[in-house]
Amino acid sequence: MSTPVTTHLVMGFLGSGKTTLLRHLLAHKPENERWAILVNEFGEVGIDGVLLSDQGAVIKEVPGGCLCCVSGLPFQIGLNALLHKARPDRLLIEPSGLGHPSRILDTLTNEHYREVLQLGPAFCLVDPRQWADPRYREHDTYQDQLALADILVINKTDLCSEAELEALRRGLDGYRPPKQALVEVCQGRLDPAWLQGEHHPDRRASHPRAHQGNAPRPVLAAPEPRLSRDQPWRRYSNHGEEHFSVGWRFLDEVVFDLAAAEAFCRRLGVARLKAVLRGADGWRAFNQVGGELSVYRVAPARESRLELIDSAPLAVHPLHEELMKTLLSLPRS
User: Fold this and answer.
1) Which residues 6+ apart lie within 8 Å of 182 measured at CB?
2) Of 168, 195, 222, at which residue does a domain stop?
3) Measured between alpha carbons, how far is residue 132 from residues 11, 80, 174, 200 in Å?
4) Where are the alpha helices (DSSP H) in 67-187?
5) Counting beta carbons within 10 angstroms of the beta carbon of residue 269, is it exposed (0 to 12), middle (13 to 18) or buried (19 or more)?
6) Same domain membership, residue 181 and residue 75
7) pLDDT tens across 94-122, in order?
8) Model confidence at 1, in pLDDT bands (50, 70, 90)?
9) Pairing between β-strand 233-240 and β-strand 243-251 as defined by DSSP bridges
10) Percentage helix, strand, coil, to 5, in the chain?
11) Are strands 303-310 and 181-184 parallel, antiparallel or unpaired?
């Protein structure tokens, strides 16, 4: 690979709008460029990759943890495989909203990638309403995502108050080295022109050893078990970084009552919810942050998936029973 691949980190806490921003950027990708995206999710059931798969880029998912907590080898294996398969002109890496980016940047700038990758601007999305909550603002990971970004993207400006927006503007002033830009957008509509430029190598995290004590993940993750008519669904769970997740995969033949599924989602009140579900008239994506739920059509997927994340332990069995009531049909073996 003679020309280094321009590489960007797209950071932001849970629910800040990273995947929506990536969808927007992909929709405006130059036709003559090849892009690849490495997606990391906290939960065991990857959904962002499904939401991005119809946007004209090669996607690789790393679900079930945080890229910075994966030892160097598996991250590099996944990254190398994606670079070899896609041979991209541009690579975007979306760490988990709970992921600490410092060690990812260390990997991307080490001797193995010095001639392969060229770091472009790193982005951090911020929701002004999260900034107003000290539980977010004082979180080590939240602070370091902001510190390591070259460009801060204030997202969801259509959903916050002017007072929340002004408080965030004041709070983001004074970083050293100075940020390249502070950009205000709604619905992740970032101008692709901001992708031009380079990452400032002197940016430092205040908590570079965050996640140090987390248990390492296997060097090579086991492949996902196959779904079948005899086993049309599987359930998964995960916990770490003061958050808990539960997720489901369903065979593509499973059909949901989408109205019932939407009502189920609205009742939950979890910190984060994402889903791609098959209904009688096609597929829908569900995206919920706090009490705000959006539902929209998406291209058919390989299977239905749903993931819940919250800061409190989740009542798995009652949730499972309620979710199963939203099914219209299960395949017969």
Assistant:
1) 151, 152, 154, 169, 172
2) 195
3) 19, 39, 18, 28
4) 72-86, 102-108, 128-131, 134-137, 140-148, 162-171
5) exposed
6) yes
7) 987 766 788 888 889 989 899 999 999 99
8) very low
9) antiparallel
10) 25, 30, 45
11) unpaired
Q: How far apart are the first and last CA of the chain?
A: 48
Instruction: Report the candidate in 209, 211, 201 with the shortest Cα–Cα distance to residue 67.
Output: 211
Q: Which of 141-155, 232-246, 296-310 has the lowest mean pLDDT?
A: 232-246
For the beta carbon of residue 194, count every other beta carbon within 10 angstroms: 19
From the CA atom positions of the chain, what is the Rg in Å? 19
**Residue 183 sits in the same domain as residue 261:** no
Same domain? For 160 and 79 the reply is yes
Integer Cα distance of 124 and 129 in angstroms: 15
Residue 171 lies in a domain: yes
Q: Domain range spanning residue 294?
A: 233-329
Strand-pair partners of 287: 274, 294
Position 225 in a domain:
no
Q: How far is CA 165 from CA 20, 86, 90, 148, 295, in A?
A: 20, 39, 32, 21, 26
In a domain, 188, yes or no: yes
CATH of the domain at 32: 3.40.50.300
**Which region among 11-25, 51-65, 163-177, 284-298 has the lowest average model confidence (pLDDT)?**
51-65
